Amino acid sequence: MTSDLNLLPLAALLTTLLAFAGLLILRRRGVGFTPLVLIGLAVGAGVGIGFRGSLDYVAFLGDLYIQVIIAIVAPLIFISILSSVTSLGSTAKLRTIGASSTFWLLLTNAIAIVLTLAVALSLELGKGVALGADAASSGDSLRGLVKPVDQVLLGLAPSNLAGDFVSNNIVAIIVFALLFAVAYLVAARRDDPQLRTFKNVVDATKKVVMVAVGFIIELTPYAVLALVSTTVATAITRIEDVLSLLLVLVLALGLAFVSAYLVNGILLRVVADVSPLRWFRALTPAQYTAFSTQSSVGTLPLTIRALTNKVGVPEEIAAFTAPIGTTIGMPGCSGIWPVIVAVFTINALGIEYSIWDYAALAGLCLLVSLGTAGVPGTAIITATAVLTAVGLPIHLLIVLIPISAVAGTASTMANVSAAATAATIVARRQGVLDDAVLAGTAARADALPDPAADVPGPPPASIPSPGTAVLSLDEFFIPEGVDVGQCELPATRRSTRTDSVRTS
Question: Domain check: are 372 and 476 in the same one?
Fold first, then answer.
């Protein structure tokens, strides 16, 4: 009996590898990237249910993917922002895009905070909950997660470029990239051949990095399968804890989906004047990769690629706003979850709270969202910081950790959706959103060869212009005999719509 049980991890691994083979066959037969991600999601759930407790090898495959994709994030953010900002042409345009991006990222979080407060208070979340006496003694382990404000601010500032790259200090990397980019814009006011060489090197490096990102993106359906299997198995293992706090779980998941789809859908329709259905279809791979990895940072390559190639957001905006969205806003982890935890604690302990106390709570949640790290486990850290800041006991947070582990899937998806929404709105208000790309009738002129595209094989014959070489979507290398400098898509018509173009 023991030997049979020892074979279960190997059986789970073999089943997963066979599922990988099935996905590969489907890919080669022309199944699009988005359906493959959804198939991987469903199969992964089945593997997690069937082999729970025996997924050590499968978990390794998922962890390996996360490690590889996070390794590419630092160079991707740095070179993308450097290339994008240096292409803007002026610091004034950078200020406009930066201020607009920050505003819309914070607004999505503010909406999530107010919505969560209204729903949680109307349901009297936490009132009458019976808690174990041992919960109070286990909160000290979380206090170490909270840092003084001055240390938090110092942590956001760059200190060592190599160290910030190693630790994936996203804010510091963004600041470094902006420093070099602004320096270039100031120096480029004078025509200097050496500066043109610098710009060419930056743009060429970005192309190489994006092709490397494409290699990793192609592995996403397989990674989703492995990651979802371990997530489902964990949820089943903790089912007793989850069921005892079912209302909290349902509320967290429900509000995350409302934020991701309903709130963003309304903003997209009203402010950006785009079709929410088409937009969500374009973002599906990024959304459900975020769902499975629980990492906004790890999903960045897919988010940027979807925004530029499928939505029609210019590269300079997508590569600027999406990375900032992994540290600012974050409605799932910095808005919904901290508010749920706070209201649950207030009602469970019978603490008297006034309307002004709740207003202060909302303000602190918005403040905490500045500089939040888009990695797994962030929700626990932000909730701990918020509870400590408003003087609420944090020991009840221990009780809610199993819920946080499950709800983190939808919360991360809400974070990624909000960042992508902000990028789309900024592009529309700048008058540079390409509607033809979202409609599927054209490809962006700055879109790079995409090995993770929905339709394998070369684009239709009507797209390339004479003398333009096109990279097959099933190939990862430049076709033999083709000059590398020719491998780019031709320019397409920019949208001529002016009725909904606004200024920030």
Answer: no
Q: Where are the alpha helices (DSSP H) in 123-245?
A: 140-143, 149-156, 161-166, 170-187, 193-217, 220-237, 239-244
Domain that holds residue 279: 7-436
Question: Following DSSP, what letter does each residue of 359-406 receive, concatenated?
Answer: HHHHHHHHHHTTT---STTHHHHHHHHHHHHTT---THHHHHHHHHHH
Residues 329 and 466 in one domain: no
Q: How far apart are CA 165 and CA 449, in angstroms?
A: 26
Do residues 439 and 422 lie in contact, with contact meaning Cβ atoms separated by under 8 Å? no
Phi–psi pair at 10, nearest 5 degrees: -70, -40
Question: CB-based burial of residue 469 (10 Å sphere; 0-12 exposed, 13-18 middle, 19+ buried)?
Answer: middle
pLDDT, tens digit (0-9, with 9 covering 90-100), for 324-380: 888 787 888 888 988 898 888 888 888 888 888 888 888 888 877 765 655 555 666
Query: Tell me, what DSSP letter sits at residue 181?
Result: H
Six-digit token pair at 310? 């499928």
Pair 464, 430 in one domain: no
Domain count, the chain: 2
Per-residue pLDDT reduced to its tens digit, 55-66: 888 888 888 887
The answer to whether 349 and 395 are in contact (CB under 8 A) is no
Q: Positive or negative CA dihedral for 426, 325, 334, 294?
A: positive
Residue 186, Cβ neighbours under 10 Å: how many? 11
Calpha distance 387→200 (Å, rounded): 49
pLDDT digit string, tens, across residues 97-154 = 888 988 999 999 999 999 999 999 998 887 776 554 344 444 444 444 445 555 555 6
Give the chain's radius of gyration (CA, Å): 23
Q: CB neighbours of 37 closer than 8 A, spacing ≥ 6?
A: 220, 221, 224, 284, 285, 288, 289
pTM to 2 decimal places:
0.66
Mean pLDDT of the chain: 76
